[in-house]
Specification:
alpha/beta, six-stranded parallel beta sheet, 19 strands
Amino acid sequence: MSTILAAVMPAPHAPIEVREMPRPEIVPGSALLETIYSEVCGTDVHLWHGRLSGVPYPIIPGHVSVGRLAEANGPLVGIDGTRLREGDPVVFFDVHRTCGRCYACTVARTPTRCPSRRVYGITDPAAEGLLGGWAQAIYLEPGVAVAKLPDGVSPEAYIGGGCGLLTAVHAIERAGVRPGARVLVQGVGAVGLSIVALARIAGAHWVGAVGDPADRRELATAMGADAVYALTELAEERRASVLAATDGRGPDIVIEAAGSARAVEEGLEIVRDGGVYVIAGHYTDAGTSTISAHRHINRKHLDVRGCWGSEVRHFATALELLQRHAATVPWARIGATAFGLGELNEALGQAEALAFTKALVAPNGPPKGGLDAAATEVSDSGIRRSAHAQDGPAPDSQARR
């Protein structure tokens, strides 16, 4: 088949369009991945509203995806050294083209700030091809870090964790969570929920979470939170409750995953003296936070750390965590609703309205019965076309689970 369907975001505030894209040439070292799932996350809502600078619209969104290897030109080897074969369930690290030579990469050791850094579904224009997950297939250019989906990890668990899990791995690393720590997480979206789970896995003595709506707080409890606090409570009441749960001192670590300027102000107030405050949720400019350098930071002898993006090691760690804990941590519940390519305007609107924590994008139709049923026979004719994706919105897409 010479063309592949993709959902394109033409510009901020513009409706998503389903377009036919040319099938890419598979050059040596590259591969074509048949998409099982991608995701609609908070970043995609930001992209839709034009809140990220330098985005080369039109783009094919979807920066974290899972699929089956349809074609590769030459040996394709995963980050663990495993040879990947056609038909294997495959995932890949969305950040690519970091140069490895600039100051950020070599001296500062912050490749997330590399000027050459590109990200699938965000900084790659649609004119360059299938470089986003909202498509029936994804082009994996030479050098992209890939891995076979670990045995026992479902596509739903992987994509439920998605980009939020990778960010959470980095945030936990930046926070230095150790056994016995008391950790408060601000935000119960996909990032915050994974931070809750990883803080518990890291041995935190107590984990609290702040956020709305109620169904997300319930999921935070399922992910391992000891206590959850609603935003409808008065800030003073929340603080009193958290202090009571942490021996009157406050949490050792507070991790912001809410993307709110007000959350930063509250977090700096509530973290204990000598504690650690990590800002992971401000991927876009949410405005100015009013703080006192003396009262909030210096007098408290506070350690404040940013957390921007993720690296290949966080991707590798996320896979190991999923392999070990996906059977007991309900990552799959984070993405409870699947949409076809023709339904993504609805999906973005519902995501903005907090109708769900995360939507899944199923470009070839939601798989029936799990991973085995998601496989597509790949022949010389190429990727199958999905009637569901071409026909536009299906009735009651929210009912598909």
